[in-house]
Amino acid sequence: MQFVALLIGIVFLLVLIIKFKVNTFVSLIVTSILVALLLGMNPAKIATSIETGIGGTIGELAVVFGFGAMIGRLVSDAGGSYRIARTLIDKFGKKRLQIAIVIASFIIGMSLMFEVGLVVVIPIVFSVALEAEVPMLYLGISMAAALSAAQGFLPPQPAPTAVATALGANIGKELLLGIVVAIPCVIVAGPLFTKLAQKFAPDAFVIKKSLPGFGTVK
After folding, report:
1. Where does the sequence pass through the membrane (predicted)?
2. Is residue 62 helix, strand or coil?
3. Which residues have CB under 8 Å from 100's CB, separation 6+?
4. DSSP state, 188?
5. Backbone torsion region of residue 113, taken as left when φ is above 0, otherwise alpha when ψ lies between -120 and 50, otherwise beta
6. Minimal CA–CA distance to 106: which of 165, 178, 164?
7. By CB neighbour count within 10 A (0-12 exposed, 13-18 middle, 19+ buried), where does 217 fall?
8. Which residues contact 178 (CB under 8 A, 6 or more apart)?
9. Rounded to the nearest 5 degrees, what angle is found at the Cα of 175, between the Cα atoms of 165 and 141?
10. Verdict on whether the full-model pTM lies above 0.70
11. Which of 92, 104, 170 lies closest to 132, judged by CA?
């Protein structure tokens, strides 16, 4: 019953966001209430449960994004992001920049939580895109795909580690098999999907000459 309730909640959330274009935050709240009712939770406790869940998540992310933004700006002001961008461009060339970003994101994704890896890698992606004069999404999609695959398939990330513990699986074998599964997933969801996205949404792949919000790259 719990799995069925979860499945119904996921489908309901996607329908609200994709088909009816309901605000994402509102959709999450409505879906949370629906899932809670399906699981038999006391209606009087639903509001408190949602409040606690949202508060706990935002509290954790606030610290990550706050300090992550500071580190990203320090790296930029110190010239580190420019150095990384130039090194990647010189080593891989403009045609293979996606591969460089995938490798870097995959390695970072194995050791850091998804949101932390995102904060760490985004300034590098911005710098590389600006320096190489390629669209941000051209590199950003591959970055997100690599981080997501590492988060979902590779221990010591929480989800795959929890699955291995629950099933009594060998962590080492799970890591090896996870890499085998993650690599094709990254290729399909990263570079291949980017080519498809460029055909259907070319306006999203505009080359930017500057990014004021990112600050001056020194």
Report:
1. 7-40, 52-76, 97-130, 136-154, 175-193
2. helix
3. 88, 91, 92, 128
4. I
5. beta
6. 178
7. middle
8. 153, 154, 155, 160
9. 115
10. no
11. 92
Tell me how far apart the alpha carbons of residues 21 and 47 are, in angstroms, rounded to a whole number. Answer: 24
What are the CB-based long-range contacts (under 8 Å, 24+) for 63-68? 64/113, 64/115, 64/116, 64/119, 65/115, 65/119, 68/116, 68/119, 68/120
pLDDT digits (tens, 9 = 90+) for 44-67: 999 999 888 877 777 766 676 677
The fraction of the chain above a pLDDT of 70, given in percent, is 89
Can you give the pLDDT at residue 9? 92
Sequence-distant (6+) residues with CB within 8 A of 125 are: 101, 136, 139, 140, 143
In order of 33, 36, 148, 196, the CA distances from 14 in angstroms are 15, 17, 19, 22
Residue with token string 């990330």: 157
Distance between first and last Cα of the chain: 56
The neighbour count for residue 61, using CB atoms within 10 Å, is 14
Q: Kindly report the average pLDDT of the chain as a whole number.
A: 85
Residues 191, 11, 29: CA angle, nearest 5 degrees: 105
Q: Residue 217: is its pLDDT beyond 60?
A: no
Q: What are the angstrom distances between the C-alpha of 11 and each of 7, 14, 102, 208, 210?
A: 6, 5, 30, 36, 39
With tokens 């959709």, the residue in question is 27
Residue 105: DSSP 8-state: H
| Confidence check: pLDDT of 194 > 80 | yes
